[in-house]
Design goal:
By secondary structure, this protein is mostly helical. It has three helices and no strands. Helices cover 54% and strands 0% of the residues. The radius of gyration is 11 Å and the shape is globular.
């Protein structure tokens, strides 16, 4: 499966979602990409996104 290149607009949107504490899964849903794709791009951009499973406790 070929990866779709990220646009500047998508990069900016991911940055906004990370700032607003959006979960990885929610960001994936909003951007129409897989959680793995979101995780990879977040790492590349130096962003931190929490996964739904990380809220245990």
């Amino acid at each position: 499966m070929a990866r779709k290149p990220w646009s500047f607009k998508e990069d900016r949107r991911l940055m906004e979602l990370a700032k607003s504490s959006t979960t990885l899964e929610e960001a994936a849903k909003q951007l129409g990409r897989s959680p793995d794709a979101i995780r990879r791009m977040a790492l590349r951009l130096g962003l931190s996104l929490k996964s739904k499973g990380a809220n245990k406790g």
